[in-house]
Amino acid sequence: MDLYYHPISPPCWSVLLLGRELDLSFNLQQISFAPDCPLRETFVKLNPQHQVPTLADGEFGLGESRAILRYLLTAHSGSDDHPLYPKDPKARAVIESRLDFDLGMLYRRAYDYFSPQWNSKSVATECDVRRHSLSQHSHECSRLNQPKLYILQKYMLTL
Question: What is the pTM of this model?
Fold first, then answer.
């Protein structure tokens, strides 16, 4: 399997960590986003969004780290009831929730925090309000890291 990645990307690291956990071997293709990157044409065909990570498993190409994680666990874990991605619908739902937690919480709050600078609003006032929102996210993340939850959370908290 080819993994198109960049070493500073946390979503890429989540895929690399899961690959290590599942004893998978990736043919690593480090992507440069310069227009003259030799891998660019192949990479763009696999992932028109030009985002890393992108996985190529034979003729099958897939972008988005969460989708790649789910695919690897389903297709390459050696079991349909792997401890990292159990068959039980409730246990799997908890994992799905943790995989996507930052989409609804962190990204929105980070956007709210930084948007005053982007939109030229009163930075001091807006940043104080948004800083509180980000601190709430930190509290919610720590609340979710309970020992009884599955190991996959530890990987996903790197996103």
Answer: 0.67
pLDDT at 90: 94
Give the residue ranges of the chain where pLDDT is below 70.
116-159
Q: Where are the alpha helices (DSSP H) in the chain?
A: 10-21, 40-46, 65-76, 89-99, 101-104, 106-119, 123-144, 152-156
> What residues does each domain of the chain span?
2-76, 89-156
Is there a catalytic annotation at residue 9? yes
Q: Rounded to an integer, what distance in angstroms lies between the CA atom of residue 56 and that of residue 31? A: 14
Axis crossing angle, helix 10-21 with helix 65-76, rounded to the nearest 10 = 10
Q: Which of 9, 65, 138, 142 is catalytic?
A: 9
Length in residues, the chain? 159
Residue where the block lists tokens 């034979």: 58
78: which DSSP letter?
A: S
- Let me know if domain 2-76 sits in CATH 3.40.30.10: yes
